[in-house]
C-alpha cells in the first residue's frame, strides 16, 4: 500500500506544480506530513520520481539554474491517465484499518469533476455500509458462538464501528458537495493558499522553469 500511496502522491504533486525539481516536490509533500498519515518514507519520494520517469509517467528535463543544471519534472499523458486511475481507485477502495489510500485520493479530489466525485463517493458509501454490516455480523457470531478467541470478535467490531463512523462522515460530505461546496475540476477556485504559504515560492519557480523549457523547445537545434 505504501508504494501505491507514494506513487499517487508524487504523480499528484507533479500534476499540480510541474515543472518542479525533486527537492521542491519532496519539500511540498513533507509539508503535508505524508510521512506520518500516509506512511511515506521521505527518501522514497526521489526513488519514485526515478521510477515514474523510467515508466514514462513523468518526463525529466535538465534546465540551467545559475552555473549548474537542475532536473525538473513534467507530467506526460500516460502519467495523467495513471493519476486519474489511482485517484478513482483510492476513492473507491475501502479499508477501515488502513485509510491512507483514500486520504491520499481525497487530497487530489479537485483534479476530478464534481459529478465523478459524487458518483465515486456514493459508490464508496454503499461499500462501506456493506462492509460494516458484514463485519458486525461476523463479530457477533464469534462473540456468541465462541468460534474464535473473543478478542478477534472485538477487533472485528472495532473495524465495523470505524466503517459506521466513516459512513456517517460520507453522508455529511455528500451533502456539502451536492450543495456546491469544495472545488473540483473545471470550476472556478474558491480557495487560495495564504500569501505567506511556502507553496507560492514553488509556483513562482515553476513559472521560471516553464519559461526556460519553452525557450529550449523554441531554440534551433543543431544538425
What tags apply to this protein structure?
8% strand, 3 strands, mainly alpha, single chain, 223 residues, three-stranded antiparallel beta sheet
3D structure, described in words:
The protein is mostly helical. It has nine helices and three strands, in the order αβαααββααααα. The protein has helices at residues 2-17, 22-31, 34-37, 42-54, 77-92, 100-107, 114-145, 150-178, 199-218, and strands at 20-21, 58-65, 68-75. Strands 1-3-2 form a three-stranded antiparallel beta sheet, sandwiched between helices. α1 (2-17) runs parallel beside α6. The radius of gyration is 21 Å and the shape is elongated. The termini are far apart. The model has no long low-confidence stretch (mean pLDDT 92).
**Alpha-beta content class:** mainly alpha
Low-confidence parts: none
SSE order, one letter for each helix or strand: HEHHHEEHHHHH
Q: Give the termini separation.
A: 47 Å
- Could you give the order of strands across the largest sheet? 1-3-2
Q: What percent of the residues sit in helical stretches (DSSP H or I)?
A: 55-70%
For the biggest sheet, the summary is:
3 strands, antiparallel
Helix segment tally: 9
Please tell me the overall pLDDT: 92
Short description:
With 223 residues, the protein is mainly alpha-helical. It has nine helices and three strands, in the order αβαααββααααα.
Helices and strands in order:
Blueprint: H1 2-17, E1 20-21, H2 22-31, H3 34-37, H4 42-54, E2 58-65, E3 68-75, H5 77-92, H6 100-107, H7 114-145, H8 150-178, H9 199-218
Antiparallel strand pairs: 1-3, 2-3
